[in-house]
C-alpha cells in the first residue's frame, strides 16, 4: 500500500490523530533513541539525517527516514523531506509506504495540540503563530481541535509569507492577520506556537503575560532556540520525551548557563496522557511545551492511516 500526502491528510484528521497519539503515549510502544547525523552541504547550511524507529510488540514496526535541509525554503521546498515504512510486527513484511512529510507535519501539530489540551487554559481562543513554514500551516487547525481558537496572528521574518499564511488561514475560517509587532502579539495571545529554525531567541520572557501557553516546535538541536532564558525560567516546562533535554537548545542552553536545572521540567507527554501529572494547575500559570519529535508519534499516525485505509478497502 502506498499512501500519498492527500490520503494521509484525509485519513489522519486531527481529532482522530490526537486520540491516536494519546493512546500511544499511554501504551507499550518501544521507541529507541533516533539516529541523528549531521551532513555537510557545500555552499549551504549543514543538513540533518534522522532515522526514527518504533514498534508496538506483535502489531506494527515502523521507521521514518527523514532529512532536514534548512536552506530549502529559498528553493521553494519544504525543509523536511521524509518517507515512512510500516511493517508487520509479527513477520516484518512491509505493509505500507507513507508520505513522511505530511505524516510528520500532522503528527507534530497533533502532539502540540495534545499537550495544549492539558496545558493551555480551557478558554484559550487567541493563537499566535511564529514562523511561516510547513508546520505553521498545521498548528491552527490542530489547536482548534482542542481549544476554541478563533483569532490567529502570524509573524514571520518574511512579511509576504506571513500575509500569505494569514490569508490561507482566513480561508479556513479563522480571523487571521499578519503582524509586524512580535512583542505586542505575544502579549495578546493565549497560545504562542513557534515553528522556526532560529538560532537566536525570538520570544522574550518579559513579554509573556500570566496564563499564556508557549508551544515550542522548532529548534530541535542544541544550537537552535526560540526563547530566552527568562521565558524558560518563568514557565512550568513540559516536554514530549526526555530527548528534549539533550537535543533542544531552548532547554540545553539555559541548563548550560545555570539558569535552570533538569528538575525544572515537570513532566513529559506520557505523564500527561496517563494522568500522572495534571498539567496546568493555575489560571495564571505560564506553561511551556517543548517538542523535538518522537518516533512513537510517527508510528501512531502511520498505524491510524493504514488501518483506516484498510477499513475503506485499500490494499
Automatic annotation (TrEMBL):
SUPFAM superfamilies: NAD(P)-binding Rossmann-fold domains. One of its GO terms (cellular component) is cytoplasm. One of its GO terms (biological process) is carboxylic acid metabolic process. One of its GO terms (molecular function) is oxidoreductase activity. NCBIfam families: PRK06141.1. Belongs to the ornithine cyclodeaminase/mu-crystallin family. PANTHER family: KETIMINE REDUCTASE MU-CRYSTALLIN (PTHR13812). This is Ornithine cyclodeaminase. It comes from Aliidongia dinghuensis.
